[in-house]
Amino acid sequence: MPTTPTVSRDPALEAHVFWWRFRKEIVAVIIVVLLVLTFFGVYRLYTGRRASTAASLLANARNVSDYEQLIAQYPNTPAAASAYLLLAEKQREEKKFAEANSTLRVFIGKNPNHELVPTAEMAVGANLESMGKNDEAFSTYQRVAAKYPKNFNAPLALISEVSLLKARNRIDEARRVCEELLMKYRMPGDQRAGAQDDRMESFWVGEAARQLRLLKPSAPPEPTASSTIPPLLAAPSAAPAAPPRPRPSATPNKPRQ
Length: 257
Hints:
Layout: H1 11-60, H2 64-73, H3 78-93, H4 97-110, H5 117-130, H6 134-147, H7 153-167, H8 171-184, H9 203-214
Helix pairs in contact: 1-2, 1-3, 2-3, 3-4, 4-5, 5-6, 6-7, 7-8, 7-9, 8-9
């Protein structure tokens, strides 16, 4: 019975045939990869030098003009982000609170994930407070405390709320904020089961306790007309003493007859 002949495979020959058939496509892919790697390397080198130059300018910056020039020349560098904050601080020192807030808001818009965004928002609140816009400042502090509860600015925002509430004589609300701070920001102590509560007081907890001691208790409400006791239900008062009877005048004795 005749057998089917087996066909032997030569890997080297197959690779040569594959290369010959797809040589143009392979060369094109290799060129693209080399171009991408070259561009990435040049970009890394360029951004590295750019960031280094910006950092050097930041180290030598001393005034508003220096910070503005750095931001204009190197807008997307880490040094430029820091320059926004330093520029805002310089503007605040010059009592230009509105300009400082504009600078801070640009920083927040350009760097929403920056670790110093909560600090920038607290600075916005402080500038608003300096401008007498206490309602806007209070809202800013509330937003910081609610949005960044684990950031170190959160207890500072709560303490700032207390100061504004005290200025408005809203004592009960100020007391509630102090109690919230005491509950949230006490440092944890021994976490073992059955261990006593030996949590440590952080600086902010100590400040909240001090503010709580300074808060005067709310004055009791004054009685209104509806809260007075009707006369018919009031306890009877003691009857007035009867006036003393007049003593009869002595009659003269009649003459004896």
